[in-house]
Amino acid sequence: MSRLPHATANDADDRGTAQKLLEIVRQTVLELRPHAADEAAISLHSVLDRDLGLDSLGRVELWSRIEREFGVRLPEALFASADTPQDLLVALRVERGVVPEPEPASEPERVATAADRRTPEQAQTLMEVLDWHVRAHPQRCHVRLLGDGEASDDISYAALQRGAQAVAVGLQQRGLEAGQRVALMLPTGRDFLFGFFGILLAGGVPVPIYPPMRLSQIEDHLRRQAAILGNAEASMLITVSEAKLLAHLLKPQVPSLGEIASVAELSASSGALRAQPRQAGDLAFLQYTSGSTGQPKGVMVSHANLLANLRAMGKALKVDAEDVFVSWLPMYHDMGLIGAWLGSLYYGFNLVLMSPLAFLARPARWLRTIHQYRATLSAAPNFAYELCLSKLDARDLEGLDLSSWRLALNGAEPVNPDTLKRFAERFAGYGLSPAALMPVYGLAEGTLGVTFPPLQRGPLIDWVSRGPFQASGQAQPVEPDSADALRFVCCGRPLPGHQVRVVDGRDVELPERTEGHVQFRGPSTTAGYFRNAQESARVRHGEWLDSLDLGYMAGGELYLSGRAKDLIIRGGRNIYPYDLETAVGNLQGLRKGCVAVFGSGAASHGGERLVVLAETHEQDSAARRDLQQAISRVAVDLTGVAPDDVVLAPPHSVLKTSSGKIRRAASRELYERGEVGQPRRAVWRQLLRLGQAALGAQAGRLLRALGALLYAGYFWALLLIIASLTWLAVALLPRRSWCRRLTRVAARGFLRLAGVPLSTSGLAQLRASEVRVLVANHASYLDGVVLCAVLPPTFSFVAKRELAEQFVAGRFLRRLGTCFVERFDVQRGAADAEALAATLASGQSLLFFPEGTLSREPGLQPFRMGAFVLAARADVPLLPIALGGTRMVLRDGQWFPHRGEVRVKLCGQLLADGHDWLDAIKLRDKARAVLLQQLDEADRLLLAG
Fold it and tell me: For residues 615 and 654, what is the distance between their CA atoms, to the nearest angstrom?
C-alpha cells in the first residue's frame, strides 16, 4: 500500500485497524480450513464466501469476534450485505469515528500478507507475473544457466525484463503487430528466455520450435519446420545467426514469414517500447504437439490457461520460493517451458538450467547438479531415469547426495514400473527417498499437468489380470508378481479445480476399473488447435477434451493403459510413424508404401523401442546391411534418434487394410510374436480366423452396449413408476410417520428391483430412541434413496431451500418433515439455523449432508458448520455415516446408471467437548477423519489447499 506524503494519526490508526481486522478474519478461516488458510491470500478484497469459505455460521462467528475485539455493534443489515473485509473495515471506521484521508484511486488499498509477497495471486498474464517479481525483488536470482564448465550465468528478474524489453523494441521496429505469431527456434539459454518474453512484451505470440541438433542439418531441419510456420502464419522467426541465411529459403514456402533475425540483432535496436495491453483470455503462446511435416497441431494456450495450471500444480506439489528446480528439459517442450521455467517464474524459486545435450552426453551431470545446488525439484521423461541406470557406474556416483530431492517427477512418456523400482533401489543408497518418485500425467492440450499423485506416497503399481483386461477392458486386481498379470502405474488424481473421466465410444462415463477414453476439463484446458477446426472438433466433446489416451480409474486415481493414437515416444521425442515411413519408403531397394514404423514395449527396457519394418526383395547380405544403415540414417536425420531394430522382411510381411493403409498395431503383434517373414497360413484360414475374432469381439461389444442401454432404460422406468406411486401415496396419507414408513419400503423395493446390492453395518446403534445429529457424505443423487431405505423412519432430512420451492420435490419433502436451509441469503441462513436448533430441542433427530452439495469428482468436499454447531450447542451425539459406491452407480452429470454395490456404514457416535465454536470445529474434524477412514476417496480439503 502506498504512503501519502503527509501521513496522519488517522492513517496509522486505520492501518492498524485493517491489520487487526485481517488477523481476526485469518484466524477464523484458519480454524475452519486449517489446511488451506495458511496459504490463502487473505486481503481486504477477498470475498467472504467464495474466496474464504465462510458459510452463514462461519460469518456469525466472525461477526461476534469483530464486535468483541473492537467493542462495537455492527449494523444488522451489514451481515447480509458485506461481501469482503473491506466492507467491514468501512463499517468499523464509521462506528469508531475514524475517517482516513483518501488514497489515490489508481492505487486501491490492500494489506499484503506473507503469502501475497511470495506469489503474484492477482496476476492475470505472464507479463504481470514478471512485473510483480521485478517490483518485489528485482535483483533476486531467477535462472542460473550452466555452461560447459563450472561457472554459471545468473539472470535476475530485472535482467530478464531488461533483456526482453530490448528484444521487444526490435520486434516492434520491424513492424510486429499485436497478436502476430513469432517463431522461436533457439537452444536453451539466455537468448531463448529474452526472446520468449520479448515477443510477449511486444504484443506477439511466441511459437517455440525445436532447434537443429547439428548445424550441418540446418537446411533439412528448417525445411521440415515449414509446416509449423505455415500453420502458425508466423510473421517473424528468431533464430541463431548461423541459421539466418538458410532460413531465408523458407520464405517461399511460408508466405507470412517476413523477418528472420537473431536476439542480438533485435536487441541492438534503439527506441521506446510501446505497451501492448493483454487480457487473461489472450494467447500466451502456441505449443505444437508435432514436429512432423504431416499434420502439425498448435495447442492454443491462453494466459488464463497457463496461470490456472501453474497455480493448480503449485498447490498439488506444495512448492514455494525456497524450492530449487534443476532442469535439462528443452525449452520447446511443455514440461521444460512451463513446468520448469514458467513454474519457477511464478513461484519465485531458483531454476538451475542446463542444456539437454549436456545431460545426454553425461547423464551423471544431472544428478551432480541436483547434489551441488541441493535441488528439491526435478522432472524428466522415463528414458532419462533409465539412462541413469544403464549408463552410470559406481565411480560416476561417488560422493553423490540426493537427500534434498523431494520430488522426482516422471512424465511426458509412458512410465515403466521396472524403471521406478530399480531407480528407487539403486539411489536409495545416495539419499533419495523412494517416496520422492512421482509419476504424473499431462499433455499440451491441458497446458501441462492433468493428474498428480499425493505427495510422499511414492509410486503405486496396479497388477491386473491379463485375460479380462484384454478381452473386455476390466482391470481386475490380482496378487503382485502374478505370472499372467499386466502392470499399470498410477498417475494420481486430477489437479485442484480440474476433472478427469473415462468414457466409452459413446461418451458414456464408465465405472471404475473399466478401460476407456481418458477425457478432462478445467480452467487449464485449451480452447483447441490454432487454425485447425477439424482436429479441434474431433477432440472436443462438449465441455470435455479427449486426450486420445486410454486408461481407467481406480480409487479416484488415473491409470494409463495405452494410446489411442499412433504416436511413438522415444527418448523424450514424439515420433509420428507416417513421416518416417514415407521417408524410408523412398530409399532405393525397398518396396515403396510397404514400411511400418511402430513402438514396441519391453519389460527390460526403460521406454518404447522404435522399430522399422520394411519390405525388400534384396537377398545379398552386404546390400541388406547397407539398407539397414541407410534406414538408420534417415531415422536419425528425421527424428533425432536411431531405431532400436530395423527388420528387412520379404514382400507382403507388412500388414495392411483392404484400402492399403498400414496396420501398425497388427504388424507390431506379428513382430513381437517373432513371426515376421514366416510362411503364413492359407488365405482362407486367415480370413476365417480373422472373421471369427472380429465377429466375436463385435458381438461382445454389442451385447455389452445393449445390456447397458436396457439396464439404463429399466432403471429410469422403474424409478419413475415407484417414485410416482410413492409421491401420490405420501400426498394422500394423513400421518407423517406413515409417509416415512411407506417411503422406506419404496426405497428398499427400488434398490432391490434395480439390482443394486446394499450392504450395511452399525445399524444397531440406532435402536435406542435418542436424539441425534447424523452426517453423511454426499456422492450421488442416489444417496437420499439409500438412506431412506436403510435408516429407521424417525429422522428429518435437512435439505437446501431451493427444493422447497419445487412443486413435485417440495411437496413430497415437506410431507416427510424435511427441514430446509437457505444457502445464499446469509441472514435467512442464520435464521434457519435457529429453527433447526428448535427442531432438535423438540426431540427430532436430524440428518445432514454437511458437504452441502455433490460432485462427480471423487473426494470428500469441505464441510459446512451447521450440523456440528447444532450438535455441540444441544449436547447431543453426532453419528457419521459413510456411503460408498453410490457415485459409481449414478454419478453427478451422468444419467447413465451402472451396476454396482452400495455400502452404508454407521460409524461410532461422537460427542463435542463443549458448546462453543471451537468445540464445534473439533467435532467437525473428528467426523471428517472418521469418514475418510471408511471411504476410498481423497480429502478434497487437502487438494484445495
Answer: 7
Q: What is the pLDDT of residues 205-242, one digit of tens each?
A: 999 998 765 554 555 556 668 889 999 999 999 998 87
Other CB atoms within a 10 A radius of the CB of residue 659 amount to: 5
User: DSSP class of residue 524?
Assistant: T
At the fourth CATH level, the homologous superfamily of domain 456-563 is Luciferase; Domain 3 (2.30.38.10)
CB 881 within 8 A of CB 832: no
The DSSP code sequence of 434-474 is GGGEEE-EE-GGGSSEEEEPPTT----EEEEEHHHHHHH-B
pTM of the predicted model, to two decimals?
A: 0.77
Separation of alpha carbons 806 and 403, rounded Å: 60
How does strand 516-521 pair with strand 499-503? antiparallel
Domain 9-118 has CATH 3.40.50.1100: no
614, 632 in Cβ contact below 8 A?
Answer: no
C-alpha cell at 745: 419400503
The 10s digit of each residue's pLDDT in 348-404 is: 999 999 988 888 888 999 999 999 999 999 999 988 998 899 889 999 999 999 999
SS3 of residue 880 by DSSP: strand
The C-alpha cell 463385435 sits at 698
406-430: per-residue pLDDT in tens? 999 999 888 889 999 999 999 999 9
pLDDT tops 90 at residue 189? yes
Tell me which architecture the domain covering 126-361 has in CATH.
Answer: 3-Layer(aba) Sandwich (3.40)
pLDDT in tens, 753-778: 999 999 999 998 887 778 999 999 99
Mean pLDDT along residues 837-841: 90
227: nearest Cα among 296, 168, 297: 296
Parse the chain into domains and list their residue ranges: 9-118, 126-361, 456-563, 568-680, 716-944
From the list 313, 609, 320, the residue with the least C-alpha distance to 441 is 313
Q: Which amino acid is at 307?
A: L
Side-chain-side CA neighbours of residue 377 (13 Å): 27
All three cell numbers of 732: 394422500
Whole-number Cα distances in Å, 686 to 595, 682, 689, 897: 22, 6, 5, 40
Residue-wise pLDDT tens digits, 133-148? 999 999 999 999 998 7
Instruction: Retrieve residue 845's grid coordinates.
Output: 433427530
- Dist. CA 617–CA 621, nearest whole Å: 12
Query: Measured between alpha carbons, how far is 518 from 510 in angstroms, rounded to an integer?
Result: 10
